[in-house]
Write a structure and sequence with these properties.
Nucleotidyltransferase, domain 5, 5-stranded mixed β-sheet, alpha/beta, 13 strands, single chain
């Protein structure tokens, strides 16, 4: 049995997993990223956590084929350099070269959203597709694109930023500096913002009571209020799904993937999110009269997608 190490480098945690050739995570290990600190120290901890995962898996490093790293920001998969990561404070950092001083194995690096998309492609909701798009609805809107079985990242390795396509040029300002991005409306952060706005407009909404009980407004608040028959909650959900459908329709019209999968905590809402979303997209896509259209599905791998996708980045390079 061959094994692969996948590392998910985040702003809060460094997670590593040993993955077998059937895409099963055999063992994991994790530590805090502890930012800010020198990139060299973070690399040392990545290696430490990876070796700990190998030990937990009960296998030898000799059994490991390669190491893959998923990182926030722009990662040049050809040179092995993290060119820029605002989250980590990296600028032109040779992560692959340094990692190989700790673990003498082939090493690959890729943007974390691309790595997660590749994980869904090889082992999750997009398995079996030729072309796929994966969108993660989290703090922002992450995107990963697979074309002909290979990660697409553009000539400058900063492609697939689906969340920073504009839906409303007069909308709220995005963290990227533009106004009305897909991310502003369809991230969990955007859903919370729209929920708070609706609460201010509807002082009698049950969402005020939910806020008091939970101690906060979350991405679940509007959906829970809708289920309880709250009019304002339903308005927020309908508005959120309308924007999400717009962004997804734009993406389908451009790429026409076999499968488009969406992930993130919002997707735990299940059918109340997915069914009206599919209905709206089906009405709006350019190919609505075609016999065959993109299948919209919920991502399957959750937080493991990044580890599994990173582990098999070497396979992506071979294709």
């Amino acid at each position: 049995m061959k094994y692969y190490i996948g590392i998910d480098l985040g702003g809060t945690n460094i997670k590593a997993g040993v993955v077998d050739e059937e895409f099963n995570i055999v063992a994991k290990a994790t530590c805090k990223t502890n930012l800010p600190r020198p990139a060299e120290d973070i690399c040392a901890d990545m290696a430490k956590v990876a070796l700990e995962a190998v030990k937990n898996a009960g296998v030898s490093l000799d059994d490991v084929e390669s190491v893959g790293i998923g990182t926030p920001g722009t990662a040049n998969s050809e040179t092995g350099i993290i060119e820029y990561s605002n989250n980590l404070g990296f600028l032109n950092f040779p992560v692959v070269k340094l990692m190989q001083t700790h673990i003498d194995k082939p090493c690959f690096v890729e943007n974390d959203a691309n790595a997660a998309a590749y994980g869904e492609f090889v082992a999750g909701a997009a398995k079996g597709a030729n072309d796929a798009v994966c969108i993660t609805l989290g703090t922002g809107v992450g995107g990963g694109i697979i074309i002909n079985g290979k990660i697409y990242s553009g000539f400058n390795f900063a492609g697939a930023e689906i969340g920073h396509t504009v839906i409303d040029p007069n909308g709220p300002e995005c963290t990227c500096g533009r106004k009305g991005c897909f991310e502003v409306f369809s991230s969990a952060t955007g859903l919370v913002r729209m929920t708070r706005e609706a609460m201010l407009e509807h002082k009698d909404s049950i969402m005020w009571k939910m806020n008091e009980e939970d101690g906060k407004v979350s991405a679940r608040t509007a959906f829970n209020a809708m289920r309880a028959g709250d009019k304002a909650g339903k308005e927020v959900v309908d508005k959120y799904i309308k924007y999400l459908a717009c962004g997804i329709t734009n993406t389908i019209n451009i790429f026409q993937p076999d499968i488009l999968c969406i992930g993130g905590g919002v997707c735990n809402e299940g059918d109340p999110l997915l069914l009206p979303l599919k209905e709206l997209v089906a009405k709006e896509i350019y190919t609505k009269n075609s016999e065959k259209n993109t299948e919209i599905v919920i991502a399957k791998l959750g937080n493991d997608a990044g580890i599994i996708g990173a582990a098999f980045l070497g396979r992506n390079k071979e294709k």
